[in-house]
Amino acid sequence: MPPSAPVPITPSAVTSVSASTAISSPSVECEGQTEYSRTPTTNSGLYLASSPHLDALDSIAAGTATTAAIAKNNASNRPWIVQKYGGTSVGKFLPAISRTIAPEFLRRNRLAIVCSARSTGTKAGGTTSLLLAAAEQALSAEDDTPEASLSGSVASLSSAREGRASLSRNSSRTGVRTPADLQGVTAGLQATSLETVSQATQSSSDKTVDRIMREHIDAARSIVTKDAAALEQLELDIQDDCERLRDLLLAAKIIEEVSPRSKDMILSIGERLSCRLMVGALGDAGVPAELIGLETIIDAAFLEELSQRGTGTSGQAEGALEQSFYELLAARIGERVSQANATPVITGYFGNVPGSLLSQVGRGYTDLCAALCAVGLAAEELQIWKEVDGVFTADPRKVPTARLIPAITPEEASELTYYGSEVIHPFTMEQAIKRRVPIRIKNVENPTGLGTVIFPAQEIVPGSGDGTKLKQPETPSASGSSTPWGVSSDGAPFNVMVPAATPAARKLPTAVTIKDDVWVLNVHSNRKTLSHGFFARIFSTLDKHGIVVDLISTSEVHVSMALASGQPGLKRPRALDRVKSELGSLGTVSVLREMAILSLVGTQMRHMVGVAGKMFSTLAEGNINIEMISQGANEINISCVIHQKSALKALNLIHYSVLEVSPTPNNRESGTFGRSFF
């Protein structure tokens, strides 16, 4: 990406995606986008400036958004925006977040930030993966440590913690930690953490903890450059968190077990470390920030109140949490966050969830935490910041002509997520959309871009001019505020602006996606079992082995099922062989490997005639064979299974022919990359 000269961001040079001030100025037309009006709206996104690059925001870091201005505009009457940053965003783009993105939003909004565990490269090398590896290493025979060395290490750690406790007692009396105090304890913990433990025990789990600590301390030193005392405090806190991690791993080693709740607590260290870096980076940029830990949000009082409302768990699924649990949790999170004295930075881990957080939600719980936070605060918008401009008509890495979709429905986003495009988990969307909180996908590398808004099609109504306004339901906040969603504290209505081509106005399918590494499991009945018993035995067998079916096509005597080969139920050795053996009593079983699922998605497809015919005729003209066809019950997707070797060709053919996108590649340097074609 070629460098561009910094462009000052002022009301006369930008298009306000949303603003709460009474500023009126001429409209601006941007290439490839619908013309947007600068009429007053709330701040649902950064300004659309004349340059799409981060350099356009340099003037903010130079002093435009001062601490005084941020404090003034962070008053209680300002609407909330909740931002969730993924691990890669925290790992690679923290300076941009702390010096440009956050200060700009704080000019007109109160801001709450939720962070995932840090990552700088592949997902496998991220902090969460390292924490999971450390938990496994703690239980392995190779991780055994001589008793003397282990005892010595524990004694050394206990001594170091006594020094830490003494420092905490002194600071609680005086309210201040002196540089001398910090330097002494930091040095002691450094010696204990990086030398005593690693060298004395030489266990693989300790080495993994050392790596996590080293990576976060190195990151801290690169982002906190203006205040030596603040850096020392940050290093001390990082080391303290890592010592807590060692305690958890040591406990697991002693009892020879990592329980689901223990695994939750181990993974929570990653979010806490990431949030510490965010707080440090914001402070170094002149933005006061406060870490909000939610480890104790689910306490005895919470469970008591939940029991008064109902059981909180579903009788239909063992241990499953009911919606009342999440509603109460959202209100509690909102109360906790709203009490912060500075910009709250919130850990994605939210306490001892009944049945374990990982079991109930999975590794995407930070997205859910952000959604619950947005609901609890009655936020104007939930923003999910990634390293892509938003949701595209196809994967831009595979389809050069892919275009940014300005607005999609939750149903479309769910289908795209399920069939290969990582948008946002459907359950997370459900929590926010149910309370009328729009979700916007934005890019940390292009913060002035509009991104993609996720909101129900029936809530998007035609507005004046060339824009489209989101309908404003009169829904009270989860925290008990009487202020309706969509109305500022002074009573003036605001609108979240999105491009005019909304899901309700589209005349074409929305997007096409591909899911690779799929197996097709075929079962042909031997007619010894009636059809209802035939299906029941198939699915009970798959359920017993924890195997999830993506697509299914059936007749009375034949069932074809598409399975994601990378799912946990198929990762165990010879898992598929055992399933085939058990299903063999029902009839002939066969497996097709190296397949892919091609899915066409769009809310308007249920009202369109000939889409399926055009899709399949296009594939036939491209000499692409179809192994299996399936259409969802909601009629907003049509999927088929093809050979994986034909996946890229099929994706581009459907994108060009059915979505009717010109086969002219995008040119990011010319400013057309990611523009909407609607």
UniProtKB/TrEMBL annotation:
Recorded GO CC terms: cytosol
E.C. numbers: 2.7.2.4
Domain of life, source organism: Eukaryota
Signal peptide: none
GO biological process: 'de novo' L-methionine biosynthetic process; homoserine biosynthetic process; lysine biosynthetic process via diaminopimelate; threonine biosynthetic process
Biased amino acid composition, Polar residues: 474-486
Keyword terms of this UniProt record: ATP-binding, Kinase, Nucleotide-binding, Transferase
GO terms, molecular function: aspartate kinase activity; ATP binding
Protein family: Belongs to the aspartokinase family.
Name of the protein: aspartate kinase
Enzyme class: transferase
Domain ACT stretches: 600-666
Region (Disordered): 464-486
